[in-house]
Every structure is written in C-alpha cells, then in structure tokens.
C-alpha cells in the first residue's frame, strides 16, 4: 500500500490522529487510513466501497442515517 497524502481537514474522532489516503498496490483502490491508539493501530477502509454504499444507500430502508455533527 502506498501513501498518497495526509487528508488535512478530515477528522478522526478519538485522539485526533491523522487520516491518510493510500492506494492499494494490488487492487488499485483508494484506501482511507485512520490512525488511533497514538499511532500504534489503524483502521483501513476502502473508499470505493464507501462511495458505492453512499450511492445505493443503506441496504435496509428501515435504517435511518443520522447527522452526527
């Protein structure tokens, strides 16, 4: 996985660690990496999956997407 950039302005809720954009060297997908636990751990999320999910909406219409801002 290759780092593209730090996503300045994208918030990680927790300890405020940086969020980065990477590209998966095998699939070519964009990956959002949110670091946590003082950088000792991270969560990797496929950005393509998030975009496709947002286009389709929740799989169950009874799920209510709430504004958490």
Word description of this protein:
By secondary structure, the protein is of the alpha+beta class. The mean pLDDT is 86. The longest helix is centred in the last third of the chain and has 10 residues. The protein is globular. It contains one helix and four strands. It has one domain. The relative contact order is 0.17. Helices cover 14% and strands 33% of the residues. The chain has a four-stranded antiparallel sheet.
Write the SSE topology.
Layout: E1 2-6, E2 19-23, E3 30-36, E4 41-46, H1 47-56
Antiparallel strand pairs: 1-2, 2-3, 3-4
Radius of gyration (Å): 14 Å
> Which spans of ≥5 residues are poorly predicted at pLDDT below 50?
none
Helical percent range? Answer: 10-25%
Report the major sheet. Answer: 4 strands, antiparallel
Form type? globular
**What is the domain tally?**
1
- Read across the widest sheet, the strand sequence of neighbours is 1-2-3-4
Enumerate how many helices there are, as a single number: 1
**Average of per-residue pLDDT values:** 86
Summarize this, please?
This protein has 69 residues and is of the alpha+beta class. The chain has one helix at residues 47-56; strands at 2-6, 19-23, 30-36, 41-46.
List keywords for this structure.
alpha+beta, four-stranded antiparallel β-sheet, 1 helix
């Amino acid at each position: 996985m290759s780092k593209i950039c730090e996503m300045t302005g994208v918030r990680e809720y927790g300890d405020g660690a940086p969020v980065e954009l990477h590209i998966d060297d095998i699939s070519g997908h964009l990956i959002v990496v949110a670091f946590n636990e003082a950088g000792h751990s991270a969560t990797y999320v496929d950005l393509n999956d998030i975009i496709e999910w947002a286009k389709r909406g929740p799989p169950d219409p009874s799920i209510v997407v709430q504004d958490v801002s």
